[in-house]
Amino acid sequence: MKLFPVKMMVLGDARGEILSSDEPLSLLGGVDPKTGAIVEREHPLSGQRVAGVILGLPHSKGSTVGSYVLYSLSTRGNAPSAIIMKKADMIVATGCVLGRIPMATVDERAWKELRKSSFGELISKSSTLALSE
Amino acid sequence: MGKIDEQLLLELLRLPFRDSGERPRFLRIQRAHVSGVSYLNIGDAGIQLLKDLSETGARVKVRTTLNPGFVELSAAGKRSCDPIVYKKQKEIAECFLKLGVLPTFSCTPHFEGNVPRRGEHLAWAESSAVLYSNSVIGAWTNKESGMGALAAAIMGFTPRTGVHVSEGRKARFQVEYTGEVEDEVVAGALGYLVGKRTGDGISIVKSNGLLKKETTAEYLAALGTSGASPMAIIEGVTPGPRRKTRKSPEKAEMVESEVRELLEEYQTNEPPQAILIGCPHAVFTSERRLLDLAERKPKLPVFVFVSRRRKERLTRAGLTRKLRRRGISVVADACIMWCGLRALGYEAVLTNSVKGAHYLRNHMRIDVGLAPMSELAGGLK
């Protein structure tokens, strides 16, 4: 396990499998707001589900309505357990507050490690992300 | 999952400080204006959130107005739209009413319904209204998301960041443009290019063609379409301190040929089927101009998008029916991205708004041509 400092945008802990991509994802239109399936066809993660995973994205793209999609996922229990981003993105951050999804941003070094990792733990109190392969 | 409560809304307002690491500071707001109203934009996920929020009993604390939606909420509107879409839009409107938001359905609250005074702090969504309020009226507001504006309206305060602070209101870019701005369409094209070039930075521009209220408004609306800045300074229009730029502003050179190229991109492949006026809402198309247009018997059906109050006034004066007989329909409550365009099956339209053209093309997949009001009115195209 390697430890990295993070900036907590939305407080909360998470532990689990990591799903990540260097390709930004449009939440509106790119993710099914009911099931959490990634439906954006050209996206490398297309066909996977965001439910319960620690989702790593550089930033989002597209409509501000993306916030509502995160909320909708959360009410159905299909939200990611946490979202880790390279850049603080207000669309995602707003959705994470509303859906009570922990969210943090990381620096380039931590991002590179996250891309290689399959399991992680976000510890809000110490602003730490633990990663392992 | 827990309910939405004030603690959660406060957390939303704290987000900018979590990012910057600064100590959270807030400002009382005098007014709010919320977007995220159209069913076309917010969909079922948005309805769910608004319902949950309105059921908590939360109410706005300041005068708060509402952006237009996708549908005209009247008997006529019901006939011109898909019944399910109509029902969904009505549900959205009811949620906002429950929250205490005034059902103005207007994207020009700064002209009617929620007119800010210079120096007032606001929490406004709707980019064109944000840009006009900061840059022309001299009120202070960041460009909020619909949810950001609503959270501020319920709490009564907003984060003290961005253009709520004097230093945040100085131009980073000096726009250099030597071409003429002959009409509102050229003003829009210039604004679109400036927004694209300057991103979230404030720009300053000097052009005699931008001094008229109508060209000012079109310039700012288009700038807000391609850019993220809440403010764009126009010399001779924007009030405020004498020094309006940062110490050494970057040059942003705009070339006349690029403006022409952008306008040439907006020509329809097929003959246009209708003329759309009013993005932002047609506040400059006075009763006089509407009647002039009617006199000239336009060759295509014309749709004019206005606020609910404006349509009520036109109807009381007998003008809605009179115009209708000449092929000019006045549409209230809705934005130019209106459900009726789908119901009528339009595939190619004309407008004088660069902002409208951009969204009609990219969001509703309608082929759009641009021409100034003077040419549209003549039915030349």
Secondary-structure map with pairings?
The complex is a heterodimer of chains A (133) and B (381).
Chain A: E1 2-5, E2 7-10, E3 14-20, E4 25-26, H1 27-30, E5 54-57, E6 60-61, H2 66-75, E7 82-85, H3 90-99, E8 103-105, H4 108-116, E9 119-123, E10 128-132
Chain B: H1 6-20, E1 26-28, E2 31-34, H2 39-54, E3 63-66, H3 75-79, H4 83-98, E4 122-124, H5 127-137, H6 146-155, E5 157-159, E6 171-176, H7 184-198, E7 203-205, H8 213-226, E8 233-234, E9 245-253, H9 256-265, E10 274-277, H10 287-295, E11 302-306, H11 308-316, H12 319-325, E12 328-332, H13 339-343, E13 348-351, H14 354-363, E14 367-370, H15 373-377
Parallel strand pairs in B: 2-3, 2-4, 6-7, 6-9, 7-8, 10-11, 10-13, 11-12, 13-14
Antiparallel strand pairs in B: 1-5
Q: Explain this structure to me?
A:
The complex is a heterodimer of chains A (133) and B (381). Chain A is an alpha/beta fold and 133 residues long. Helix content of chain A is 25%, strand content 30%. Chain A has one domain: 3-Layer(bba) Sandwich (Glucose Oxidase, domain 1). In chain A, helix 2 packs parallel to helix 3. The longest helix of chain A is centred in the middle third of the chain and has 10 residues, at 66-75. The model of chain A has no long low-confidence stretch (mean pLDDT 92). Chain B is an alpha/beta fold and 381 residues long. In chain B, strands 12-11-10-13-14 form a five-stranded parallel sheet. In chain B, strands 8-7-6-9 form a four-stranded parallel sheet, covered by helices on one side. Chain B starts with 5 loop residues before the first helix and ends with a helix. In chain B, helix 14 links the parallel strand 13 (348-351) and strand 14 (367-370). Chain B has 15 helices and 14 strands. The A-B interface holds A 7-10, 28, 33, 63-65, 67-69, 71-72, 74-75, 77, 88, 90-91, 93-94, 97-100, 105 and B 1-2, 4, 8, 11-12, 15-16, 18-19, 21, 36, 41-46, 48-49, 52, 145-148.
